[in-house]
Amino acid sequence: MRAAKKKDKEQEKTKGSHQNTKRSILTTKIINIIYKDGLKTIAELCEDTHNSIPSITQIMNEQTEAGIVKSFGIGESKGGRKPVLFGLNKNAGYVVSIEVSRKYTHIAIFNLHNEQLGQTHEIKQGLENTEDIFKVLKDECNTHITNQNIDNNLILGYGITVPGLIDIKKGMSLSYLQFGNQPIEKSFRELFNKPVFIEHDTRAMAWGEAWFGLAKNKENVLFINIGSGIGLGIIINGQLYHGNSGLCGEFGHIQMNPEGELCYCGKIGCLETIASGAAMVKKSQEKIRNGKSTILKKVVNNNIEAITLKNIIDAANNGDLFAIELIEEAGEYLAKAMSILIHLFNPEAIIIGGEISDAGNLITDPIQQKLNKYAMQRLKQDTTILLSELKEKAGLMGTLPIVVSNTIGAIE
C-alpha cells in the first residue's frame, strides 16, 4: 500500500515537473515573439503559439506582475471588445554588447526595446595591442554601466563578438592566445559573473541584419564584412549558419591569385591580400612612396604609415581619383569572388557591410558592373546587392537576440 502511494507521489511529481517545463518553454517562446515582433494581443499570441486563451492569459498576468511585460494600450477591434496590446517593459533588463576587434573595442548598452543607452564607448585597445584584454574589458564595462546609471542587477547578460577562428564545439579561439586555454564564454562569465554569449564578429553582423536590418524577413542572405579583413556571414532558411565546427565564412581566404602575395593565413594570393582594407592601405602606401599624387598625403600630414581604410574612403568620397581607383580595383576582385557565392548559394541578397560600406556606390558600382562579367545572368538577377544601413552597429545589435533569447525567461 505504501509502495503504491509512493509511486503515485512520484508520478505526480514527474507530471508537475513536466508541466512546469512546458510552461517555462511556452513563456520563453511568448517573450521571444514579443521581443521580435513587438506589441501583441493575447489572441495573436494564442494563434502564434497554438495555445488556449486561459493558458496565455495566465502567463501574461504572471509576466506583467513580474515587471517583464506591460500593457501598451488598446488595439483595434476585430469584432467585440477592443484587445489589450502587450509588449516588453523596456527597462526590465539590459544587454551589454561588446565588439572586440584587433585594434579597438566597442561597448554599447541596450534596453529590451533595442534602444541604445548613450553613445557607443570606443576603446583604442583590442586583441593585438593590449596584453590583458580581460582587465581592460572589465574596467571599461564597469565604467560604462556606471556612467549610464544602470543597476548591475538588471544586466541580463553580455553579448561579445570576436574575430578570428572560433571552434564552437570546444568554445575556443583558435586565433588569439589571449583568451587562454579554456572556453571563451567560461572566462568571460567568471569575469563578469553574468551570462555571456560569444559569437564570431561577422556572423553577429549578419544576425544583426537578419533581426534589425536589410535581411529582416528574408530567408537566404549573405553578409560580407569588409574592413581590415574580409568575412562572410551566412543566413540559410532564416537561420544563422555556423558550419560543422563554427569555422565557416572564411571568404577572405579564397585564393584569387595563385601568383600573388603571401597571406597571414600562410596561403598564397587570398582575396584578403588584394581586396581587403589592409590590402588597400598597403597598396596606397607603396604607390605614394613611388610618387603617386593624392590628397591622402596631406590628410595624414605626410605620415604615410598612418593611412587607414577610413582615410581612403573619405578621400574617395571627396573626389580623389587615386582613392577611387583603389576602391574600384578592390571591387572588381570582390565581384569575381562574389560570383562564386552567387553560383553556390543563389541568395536573395548579398549585404555589404563593415568599414567599406561608407564608400557607398563607389564600391557597389564596380561590383555590379563586374558581376555581369563573372556571374551567370539568370543567377545574378536573383540576387540584390545591398549596402548595410546598420553599418558599425550591425555586430553590436547582432548579439542582442542571442542574449535575450537565452536569458529573458530567467528574469524574476
Give a description of the structure:
With 412 residues, the chain is α/β, with parallel strands linked by helices. It has helices at 2-37, 42-49, 53-65, 133-147, 184-192, 201-212, 272-275, 277-289, 296-299, 309-317, 321-345, 361-374, 377-380, 394-398, 400-407, and strands at 69-74, 84-88, 94-100, 105-111, 121-123, 155-162, 166-167, 172-173, 196-200, 221-226, 230-236, 239-240, 349-353, 384-387. The protein has a five-stranded mixed beta sheet with strand order 5-4-3-6-9, with helices on both faces. The protein has a five-stranded mixed beta sheet with strand order 12-11-10-13-14, with helices on one face. It is globular, with a radius of gyration of 25 Å. The model has no long low-confidence stretch (mean pLDDT 90).
Give a quick precis of the structure.
The chain has 15 helices and 14 strands. By secondary structure, the chain is an alpha/beta fold.
Keywords:
alpha/beta, Arc Repressor Mutant, subunit A, five-stranded mixed β-sheet, 14 strands, 3 domains, 412 residues, Nucleotidyltransferase, domain 5, single chain
How would you summarize the topology of this molecule?
Layout lengths: L1 H36 L4 H8 L3 H13 L3 E6 L9 E5 L5 E7 L4 E7 L9 E3 L9 H15 L7 E8 L3 E2 L4 E2 L10 H9 L3 E5 H12 L8 E6 L3 E7 L2 E2 L31 H4 L1 H13 L6 H4 L9 H9 L3 H25 L3 E5 L7 H14 L2 H4 L3 E4 L6 H5 L1 H8 L5
Parallel strand pairs: 3-6, 6-9, 10-13, 13-14
Antiparallel strand pairs: 1-2, 3-4, 4-5, 7-8, 10-11, 11-12
Helix pairs in contact: 2-3, 10-11, 11-12
